[in-house]
Amino acid sequence: MKITKDKENLIVSIPLKQKIYNPYDEREDQGECENIVGVIAGDDEQGFYSLNSLAYKDDIQLGAPLVLTYLENDEFIKLCKKLGVSIWEYSKCSECGKTIWGSFTMNDKGNICWDCEYELEKSDTPMGASQWKNHGIKYKYDEYFDVKFKK
Ligand SMILES: [Zn+2]
After folding, report:
1. What spacing in Å lies between the alpha carbon of 126 and ligand 1's midpoint?
2. Three-state DSSP string of the chain
3. 146, pLDDT greater than 70
4. What is the value of pTM for the model shown?
């Protein structure tokens, strides 16, 4: 990152690419990957974020917010396309409407955040059992973990 200024502006230069570093890979040059991503997080947040290369497990992770923007989403998407920056759009919880940043489960209404999943799980009493059906959760908590993590 390079930070300079001219007469009227602070100028922050952030490389579009970063060098990949995997400590388990002995090659000197492991190539490059994206360094910046455009994020649309429901109605909560929009902007450019850094990316963290997780080359040791062939993955990449969202890093810190760099610049927040307040554009209409379609304008932001146009800007990202113009800049050649990928866009990650995070989904909203179908129960509470909050942005879901991490992993999540789903029911028939859509994606469910961990907080709402926890609340739904807690309500799994004889009376709450029908609530599970009403909410259309496909798996109860334990079954969900069996399905998701025992594969
Ligand atoms: Zn929720």
Report:
1. 23
2. CEEEECCCCEEEECCCEEECCCCCCCCCCCCEEECEEEEEECCCEEEEEEEEEEHHHCEEEEEEEEEECCCCHHHHHHHHHHHCCCEEEECECCCCCCECCCCCEEECCEEECHHHHHHHHHCCCCCHHHHHHHHCECCCHHHHHHHHHCC
3. no
4. 0.71
